[in-house]
Design brief:
seven-stranded mixed sheet; BirA Bifunctional Protein, domain 2; five-stranded antiparallel sheet; alpha+beta; binds biotinyl-5-AMP
Length: about 325
Amino acid sequence: MNIKEEIIKAFHRKPGEFISGEELSQSCGCSRTAIWKHIEELRKDGYEVEAVRKSGYRLLAAPDRLSAEEVRAGLGTYRIGQKVLAHDSVISTQPLAHEAASKGAPEGTLVITEQQTGGRGRLGRPWHSPKGSGIWMSLIIRPEIPLSKTPQMTLLTAVVLAKTIWEETGVGPKIKWPNDIFIGDKKVSGVLTELNAESDRVNYLVIGIGINANMTSEDIPPELSAIATSLRIESGKPLKRIPFIQRFCENFEAEYDHYLREGFERVKMEWEQHSYTIGRWITVSTIQQTLEGKAIGLDEEGVLILEDTTGKRHKVYSADVNY
Ligand code: BT5
């Protein structure tokens, strides 16, 4: 048992209340001296814990740090986010998640970090991931679906992100096909889905998620200032990252379980409801060609349907979309 994590869980069960050393030592299965030592360690980690003789310990403030203990304390899921690999600074969470997945990390494992020095988007594009002000994470899932359906996981993740942003900030985001979350006309979050498969069998997917949480306008570099925003800028309040990640995991698990049981239909409907793309005139560039037309909707597999000026409909599988 991880004693620090048990103590944090106990504090979360009784917010604002004193918990006696005796009660903590019983629920953690260790001596009161061991509890005292772990409380000292928590203080070193930035937790403010009040200790009062006869009353016990009370949590006054937790640090704004993405630790495995904090994410798991009070998390209402049975597998998404139940294993967390938390880092301070990494090049990118994607290769770390691939490595963990190839060594057998369970479905739902989350790799999170405070900072990425080489964060990336699709086609190797850079993803700006400054320290402390974002949520940079990679989720491992192992769905039993054919390869052709894996792009649906990006759409599912975008729906879950849009819902979570709405629930946690009250700001209404839109999804730009296939992987961008927009508020107004600026990007607040992006999804990068990577796949490991053999013939038609999916071994695992790594879903990379970048969310601009607490960046201020000054934190956004000039080359991104016209296209990027953050939840803090849009909602006018700092975001509590831990509750956000927990809500994301809970929403993801609910949506994903429903998808595995019932199929893509609900994701398609919700995606269309939150869509920035549908109804717009867009230009789509693939390696082979450039198409112009109106985005009509998704087909039942999640492929974007585009109608050109002659009324002809085209299926867009994977491409860059300009507006
Ligand atoms: C994406 O790519 O939007 C996917 C981003 C995924 C990032 C996560 S963070 C955790 C995990 N680890 C990683 O290394 N990556 C994943 P794409 O659609 O290709 O968009 C990339 C483009 O977005 C760049 O070319 C910039 O124009 C822009 N951009 C870069 N950083 C941004 C930011 N922080 N906010 C908004 N836009 C950004």
